[in-house]
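Lecture notes, unit on protein representations.

Consider one protein chain, 101 amino acids long.
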Amino acid sequence: MTIEQQLADAVQSGAWYPILGLTITLVVTLFKRFQPLAFALLPTRLQWIPAVVLASLGSFAMSYEIGDRWLVAVIGAITAALTAIGAHHTAKRAAGSGTST
């Protein structure tokens, strides 16, 4: 059995959660390790993207795992993304690195 067939069988049987969990763990670990370097490379106006991606992935996986419909999972991911943007903006303001209006 090829690796492609094994992955297809895992996805079809719903056993892809461990793969997603490990992938998210890897992304978070890499993010924590390379975050200072990554933020130096990203323009200030794009520094919210990592928080949005991680929050959306986590929310979508949780919603789908508990059996929510796809639409509910997507709405949850969007809500988590908006919350992450707000939290990122608030943290920057609290640290004094944002511009005051």
